[in-house]
Amino acid sequence: MAKYFDVHPANPQPRTIGTVVDSLRSGALVAYPTDSCYALGCQLGNRDAIDRIRAIRNLDDRHHFTLVCHDFAQLAQFVRVDNDVFRAVKAATPGSYTFILPATKEVPRQLLHPKKKTVGVRIPDHVVTQALVSELGEPLLSSTLLLPDEEEPLTQGWEIKERLDHEVDAVIDSGDCGTEPTTVIDFSGDEPEIVRRGAGDTSRFE
């Protein structure tokens, strides 16, 4: 059964955040809220949890996982960013955007797009997510909590606990979060490509 953590949305309890991070370091798969919607998250090198995310969401090997980062300095360790892209990404973060960029050697091979060698990165504008990633000290490997054959992500902690009780190890509930996935912008080509229109405003990339 998944552990259920009730976390204050504006002032996350340090002890609770520490407990969740300890479980992540021990191999847990966690459902947590973001500024867009709920996500599934685990530690970067956790192959078992990655396989569980793929199974829960019925994903193939072309799926772009996302590295949820605390700040731009952390993000820049895992993706290559030229000056033009730097300015565009910097202006849109923190926020409800995922950026697809060429990965550095810091990213495990199994997380890369098999042909493009790219990975998704984002810096969320959400107090609880930021507290988690800050305490973890590294990006949180994530994927939107969108179940197969469903059009909208799950957005309520109690419902996630009910439906995924035996598939995740912990659920964080901090009240209402977003109901729409991130906007995804692919910067791996010559021009930015809007892959998915979501919670983030796309006008600055058009």
UniProtKB/TrEMBL annotation:
Q: Which UniProt keywords apply?
A: Nucleotidyltransferase, Transferase
The answer on whether this UniProt entry bears the keyword GTP-binding reads no
| EC assignment | 2.7.7.87
- PROSITE patterns attached to this UniProt entry: YRDC (PS51163)
GO molecular function annotation: L-threonylcarbamoyladenylate synthase
**Can you give the residue ranges of the YrdC-like domain?**
14-200
Cited PANTHER family: DHBP SYNTHASE RIBB-LIKE ALPHA/BETA DOMAIN-CONTAINING PROTEIN (PTHR42828), THREONYLCARBAMOYL-AMP SYNTHASE (PTHR42828:SF3)
Q: Per its record, how is this protein called by name?
A: L-threonylcarbamoyladenylate synthase
